[in-house]
Design a protein that fits this description.
heterodimer, A: mainly alpha, two-stranded antiparallel sheet, about 75% helix, globular, B: mainly alpha, Four Helix Bundle (Hemerythrin (Met), subunit A), 6 helices, about 80% helix, flat
Amino acid sequence: MSGTHLAIAPLIALFGGVLGAYLAGRSTRGRSATRPGVVAALALVLALASTWLLWTRSLPIEYALFGEGVGVRVTALSVFLSTIACMVGLAVTVHAMGSDDSDDAADLYFPLVLATVAGVVGIGLSADLFSLYVFFEVMAVATYALVPFAVDRATAVEAGLKYVIMNAAGSLLAIFGISLVYAHTGGVLDFAALSGALTATTGPGPLEAAVLFLVVGFGVKAAVVPLHTWLPDAYTESPASASALLAALATPAAIVAMGKALSVVPDGVSVGLLLLVLGALTMTVGNFLALGQRDLKRLLAYSSIPHVGYIVFGLGVGFYGGFDVAFDGALFHVLANAFMKGGAFLAVGAIGYRLAGVEGEHRTLDALAGVGYRMPVAAGAIAVAVLALAGVPPLAGFWGKLFIVLGSAEVSGAVGVGLAVIVVGNSFLSLGYYLPVLGALFDSPTDAVSSLDRTPTRLAVPILAMTAGTILLGLAPAFGLDLVGPAADVLQHGLEVTP
Amino acid sequence: MIEQLPTAVLGLTVLFGLVAVAARDFLVSILSLSGASVALAVYFFLAGAPIAAVFEAVVAAGLITVLFLFVISLTEADTAERIERGKLTVVGLALGGLLGVGIAVWALLDPVASEAATGTTFAQALWSGRSVDLLAVTILMFVGVLAVVRLTAERLDPVTDTTATQPGDRASGQQEGES
């Protein structure tokens, strides 16, 4: 395979996997999850392998399926997103094969998971704003079905409806913003030429409106406060593996999509300031909303909001002052968040899987007291994840926050100190709801918990993989920075391609 | 005849629009609206605005139709039940057909190509510019149909599978590996 054909290989593997997993599911007697799951996992491994091969080539690579235009453009940002998407997708697929998340509809579940991953990979590969939007929608439409996947549960359908309606409205605002950019530049959408075209056009008026539409449009899917109200219900009511996919991949990918779209906006428009304010608001409001939650899955759902805030805040600092370290911090936190949230939601799913047959309420921290003694892998993974999410060194969540704080401190004077204090203060605030989780997991076991058996092996494997990622990324952040640094450069310096 | 095509396409747009408003059946309404969008996309292309045509075809005819089907599947039990009873194949075919017809008409009526072998010029214009988008939209439509299958079928007719693993078995961990 030539270098250029390789550029489209991750997408082709995933699109092929969508069809293959569906056909494998349809041809399986009794709707077993094994065969479609294996097809999905193979597609993800192929996509990951081709992403790695792309990483070894000289970037950027431009490629069109037919003709001479630019269909996709592989940059370090594409490799970054593709790597995260395939890893999270693989963990989610293995977990779903061992659990009952696919609910006897494996022929539908695995194609939807793969389509979500493909959408994220496509966001990274997109060469122009319209392609970015199309792939964003592929990701969104797949998750619209994953949230209410347990269709016989009214609360899941209600959460799905709220999710679809809010995000569909956001999508329409995003495409309106893109059409404003198109009108403003006289027909230029390609990222390679867009920055120059926007700088050359006079009058920021329509461009400022376009930026607002893009921020709000992508911001709904990214759950930026005050557009976050769909998130707690959607994460709580989704199957556990779908929650992991949403929290670890889809929501952060929406922020990266927003950052990629805004990276071409010239300095005259205050993108950085806008993201700074929204990021600070999101992390603070999100932390206060999570305080006092007693339902473990809902607590983790709420705690995703401040992490959206950290990433948006990091991008805001980066765009505001052009600080490399802030872009590094934002993208490092996207990577760390994938391991932390992925591991946490999959572990909660494993506990829920074991407790499904136990009578009574078993989602609150009180009901889960002592589960750490019966299911040490799942509870240990949650413990590592919440410590990392709180930013405790030397776990993965620490470094992203540190880089964002360092970036904030580069802003001159008291403002810089104030920005850094907001991030540090919010990290301490989050301990207010993370520490009770630790306390509950290793409290005296309740009667219901005492009879539980250990985490099933097929669920333990992806959970341990995510936990290992959280720990290793914390101990050796240089590995993560190898991936993050070049991707952050692409985001910071735009996507212009030197011929 | 070719000169009157823009008028004919506009007429078709209005006709589909009227059916979308007047139809009592939600499915007919949704598909008519999709048809109106495809016709409008063809008109945009004839009028020399190919990117606007792509926007209209992908966003309005493709995505919006899928979203309407989603919401109907989640809220309107009667319509969802009829989708579940066999109309889904028709819906999928109709969506694919609308997109296919739109693209075919578009291919044959490329105003830029005029007298030249129209197909070739169209192929250059469409495939070199938006090939990956078309691939993505095809997957999007497929995923949309899968999603509607899920959202309609089992909610309305929950199947009690007696051979499935009983919840109580999970807590015991029998016959499963453990960590």
